[in-house]
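@channel anyone free to eyeball this complex?
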Amino acid sequence: MEGAKTALYEKHIASGAKMAPFAGYIMPIQYHSINAEHLRVRESAGIFDVSHMGEFMVSGEGALDFINKMTVNNTKKLSIGQAQYSAMLNDNGGIIDDLLVYRFSDHFMIVANAANKAKDFTWLADHADSSIKLADESDNITLLAIQGRNAPAIVQDLTETNIDEIKYYWFAEGEVAGSPSIISRTGYTGEDGVELYFDNKYAENIWDAVLEAGKKYNIEPIGLGARDTLRLEMKFALYGNDIDDTTNTIEAGLGWITKSAKGPFTGREQVLKIKEQGITRKLIGFEIEGKAIPRRGYKCIQGNEKIGDVTSGCWSPSLNKGIGMAYLEKEFTPVGTRFEIEIRNKHIPAVVADTPFYKRPY
Amino acid sequence: MSQIPKDCKYTEEHEWVKMEGDIATMGITDYAQGELGDVVFLELPEEGDILKLGEAFGSIEAVKTVADLYSPVSGEVVGVNSELEDTPENVNQDPFGEGWLIKIKISDSAELDGLMDASAYEQHIA
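replying in thread with the prediction:
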């Protein structure tokens, strides 16, 4: 199999993971069962190696203004120690990538999707003046996500940093299992949890320490398969599926991060135009009625007319039904609207759902 | 390593067939269930349906993907594993036993010669 390996590759192989190419990496898709791994995160805790993600460090006098100009969210609202969900647009208002922006005392860290690392970095470098220092640290940093209601307690066992004092979308710099790490209260599962960023050389040690500390909570390693079904139950967009260079943040339901009043940023004129003209389609969540699984690329229809396309779909392990996301023509997007999905030559009833599909019970 | 029982015949589509008299019991192989991942549900034919060799007669929906099922032989469906409606995981956990799919009363035993034996199938998935 061709592809880059994370620092934990040998650990995944030793755990019997099914490995598959993903965004240029050989990543664990599942360890034994997507369903069981999904439910373990929902019920207790799981650990994910997501080191394929990119980390760019941005520093220099103009770093704050630069990131504010390059991204849609208001970087100036970000305090030191805080993280922000944001996105970078092209000149047509299309989404180059969705990102996390972390503000440190003397620099920023941008976390990018694995498949977009090179594209993002080039775009940033092309727009940076000489006062900006950009460094791609992706190959040096391991990123672990520990997710689930018991995840904070597990990480707390390994650090002096008070996890309870780190609020949602804030972070601290501390030590985990004796090694320096960024401890971030973030995640992509809809559960409480922590993400750890640290140097590759600590990867095996911290991985083992988390699994050991989590034993009493039956923690287990979770593959990218369950990561996908977990995020889908939250209607979190996945770049390449639900958003891409041709979709805009307004139709994707990311208007809440698109701060067009903050001042100039790349793509802003297009955002304003879209807002003025109104969107023609919108990304919605839907549920299937009956036993069927929607998948990316399936057609959405009403009567005999095509009204949209499925961008993501799966069997929801928490809800025990088929769920998905689709861009539908705007008139069909109110919650409760019924339509059909063409699944293998059959028309299967579906309904626009209130999202997230899953709401955590604690 | 995948299980490949010696007393079964195999298709290129990763199905197994086991003969008892003129009744062929069929399912998907251990290798196939491993590639598919967690099976969520199956669409199977009904008893009395007539299947032709190589015809798509149903499907297996797994969490990540869907796969067509192809008839390994021609004949009449004389049994359907209805327990899979409640326990589709049997296909993952016991693909050659509790995870069987359908029984076919074969109409042309010569078709069996076109199937692979265990060692040929082992080569096929190597």
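from a first look: The first strand of chain B starts at residue 9 and ends at 10.
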